[in-house]
């Protein structure tokens, strides 16, 4: 239990941020799974569009502080490698 008013505000703020971050991370995972499913079909055009959407969502999550920028870069790099395999 918070002892001061400022601690009470921080608890409320932390809860709001936690909910926002959980939602954003969940949507990131969902979009990543969708991208991997698209790659599994082997369709090149759809895969490149899906990669663009996933990369954008990772960048937005990094910009808002949901995930670290280097984490987003690492994930985008690994997804791009998978796309390169499909495009060959």
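^ structure tokens above, recovered residues below v
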């Amino acid at each position: 239990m918070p002892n001061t008013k400022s601690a009470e505000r921080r608890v409320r703020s932390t809860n709001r941020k936690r909910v926002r971050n959980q939602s954003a991370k969940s949507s990131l995972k969902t979009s990543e799974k969708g991208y991997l499913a698209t790659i599994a079909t082997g369709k090149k055009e759809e895969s490149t569009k899906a990669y663009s959407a996933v990369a954008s969502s990772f960048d937005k999550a990094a910009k808002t502080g949901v995930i670290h920028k280097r984490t987003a870069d690492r994930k985008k790099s690994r997804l791009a490698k998978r796309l390169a395999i499909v495009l060959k």
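The chain has a mean pLDDT of 96.
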